[in-house]
Amino acid sequence: MIRKEMIAMLLAGGQGSRLGVLTANVAKPAVAFGGKYRIIDFPLSNCINSGIDTVGVLTQYQPLRLNSHIGIGIPWDLDRNHGGVTVLSPYEKSDSSEWYSGTANAIFQNLGYIESYNPEYVLILSGDHIYKMDYEVMLDFHKEHNAAVTIAAMPVPIEEANRFGIVITNEEKQILEFEEKPENPRSNLASMGIYIFTWSVLRDALIAMKDQSNCDFGKHIIPYCHERKERLFAYEYNGYWKDVGTLGSYWEANMELVDLIPEFNLYEEYWKIYTKIDNVEPQYISSDSVIEKSIIGEGAEIFGQVYNSVIGAGVVIGKGTVVRDSIIMKETKIGDDCSVNKAIIAEECEIGNEVEIGVGEEAQSKLNDKVYAFGLATIGEYSIIPSKVKIGKNTAISGVTTQEDYPDGVLAGGEYIIKAGEDK
């Protein structure tokens, strides 16, 4: 078999619990982004743009939509006889039916897959970040420094540094110390969760640490390599990178796409973002509609007004309806004379007529104040909202709701409706 210089292992099994009802039935990397993409499209596109043609995608939580989105990798030119994209689910292996119990354990369970390509280097990626990076440049850095492990790192504000794995380096960017989420950070260079390992080093570390519970790169593998005096280096990245793990950061990253000069450009010819495209008819914008500073997906029908929003494919926005600062995912139908402010509405929802979403004062969420914050109203996929109701801020709705679910026609700020069988 032809040896691959570097293969990528893309960790895409995350539940994304901080995205609340958006990830009740779908893995975080499969959540829609930017009107036509899914989050996983970004690392996959980075791979093919960087000349990496062999990618193992490790799925676990709610993998169906992710699997059907990736398919055999055609949109990313990853449908190859040798290499290409392979979805690696924990329950499909015959020798063991163990679930992945940590990022490094997931890689350990797929040592056989990596061995079959016998690569010189292995690139470890996360499936839930929005960014563009040329991994080939990072590999050149790895080789140049004769590194065993290279960690992509970026400067963050020092007051936020305790949320990350922090590296302390010398002038050559060699890592002297690595601290996972330190209370008093001594550096602001944060690990991005993107690693290049020399394969022999990674294999030895995974086997040595295989009995650790919830074996993780930041907590176990990197410290193990450091203790063994392996050569660890930090590859500094200064481009756009967003971890869209919270509703606030997810909403913010989408809103940044519609800035007049977006910091993150989806339309660069030399670094395309590829995705699976459904065959849908062209969009329809009525003569009465108004659209300002927004992304409108294919097949959308706009009869109302849309400001500073990201609208997915096949969305219908009725007459007299005004949508502001919101994300509306594909195939959702919004009736007439509604107002939607700072909302995230997931796929295939139905919103009745004269519905007001995002009204009133902000109140603390009674469901989960760490998740449902940021002044957003969040509606999970396949939900139905009846006509003439008002929905406040920091609210969550999932499921088919009726008039009876809204006392006096109102879901006040901080309240929630999660129907039986729906996850929160």
Notes on the structure:
- 47% of the residues are buried.
- This protein has a seven-stranded mixed sheet, with helices on both faces.
- It is of the alpha/beta class and 424 residues long.
- Helices cover 16% and strands 28% of the residues.
- α2 (64-70) links the parallel β4 (54-58) and β5 (84-88).
- The mean pLDDT is 87.
- It contains eight helices and 33 strands.
Chart the SSEs and their pairings:
Blueprint: E1 6-11, E2 32-33, E3 37-38, H1 41-49, E4 54-58, H2 64-70, E5 84-88, H3 103-108, H4 111-115, E6 121-126, E7 129-131, H5 135-144, E8 149-155, E9 165-169, E10 175-180, E11 189-198, H6 199-208, H7 217-227, E12 232-236, E13 241-243, H8 247-256, E14 284-285, E15 290-292, E16 295-296, E17 301-302, E18 305-307, E19 310-311, E20 316-317, E21 322-324, E22 327-328, E23 333-334, E24 339-341, E25 343-345, E26 350-351, E27 356-359, E28 377-379, E29 384-385, E30 390-392, E31 395-398, E32 410-411, E33 416-418
Parallel strand pairs: 1-4, 1-6, 4-5, 8-12, 14-17, 15-18, 16-19, 17-20, 18-21, 19-22, 20-23, 21-24, 22-25, 23-26, 24-27, 25-28, 26-29, 27-30, 28-31, 30-32, 31-33
Antiparallel strand pairs: 2-3, 6-11, 7-13, 8-11, 9-10
Offer a few descriptive terms.
8 helices, elongated, 28% strand, seven-stranded parallel β-sheet, 424 residues, seven-stranded mixed β-sheet, 16% helix
The helicity comes to 10-25%
N-C termini distance = 47 Å
Q: Biggest sheet: strands side by side, in what order?
A: 5-4-1-6-11-8-12
Query: How would a textbook summarize the main sheet?
Result: 7 strands, mixed
* Dominant shape: elongated
| Structure summary, number of beta strands | 33
Residue-averaged pLDDT = 87
